[in-house]
Amino acid sequence: MEKKEHLEGYWRENLKYVGILLTIWFIVSFGFGIILVEPLNTIQFGGFKLGFWFAQQGSIYVFVILIFVYVWLMNRLDKKFDLHED
After folding, report:
1. Nearest-CA neighbor of 51 among 72, 68, 67, 35?
2. In angstroms, rounded to a whole number, what is the distance separating the alpha carbons of residues 74 and 69?
3. pTM (predicted TM-score)
4. Rounded Cα distance, 51 and 44, in Å
5. Nearest residue to 6 (alpha-carbon basis) of 84, 85, 86, 80
6. DSSP 65-78
7. For the segment 36-75, what is each residue's pLDDT rounded down to a tens digit?
8. Contacts for 52 with CB less than 8 Å, ≥ 6 apart
9. Which stretch of DSSP H or E encloses residue 8?
10. Quick count: other Cβ atoms within 10 Å of Cβ 53?
11. How far is the CA of 20 from the CAs of 1, 24, 64, in angstroms?
12. Are 40 and 27 in contact (CB under 8 A)?
């Protein structure tokens, strides 16, 4: 039974990471790219309006960064629960 509880803890923490990262992605892509586009367009970033930049490029960059963050978090989680591959 201890093994099952161990794996449930691992899965629970994994779901927490996924939920947080997806929330960040949603805020950046939907929030900044659609909902807050007008206020953000008053700011220039690299010669482009910031709202436009988030809608076209920023959300993609954030998504790629979140993939690397997820890999890093999962490697730490694997070591914490002694499930890593060496």
Report:
1. 35
2. 9
3. 0.84
4. 9
5. 80
6. HHHHHHHHHHHHHH
7. 999 999 999 788 899 888 888 989 999 999 999 999 999 9
8. 37, 41
9. helix 2-26
10. 21
11. 29, 6, 15
12. no
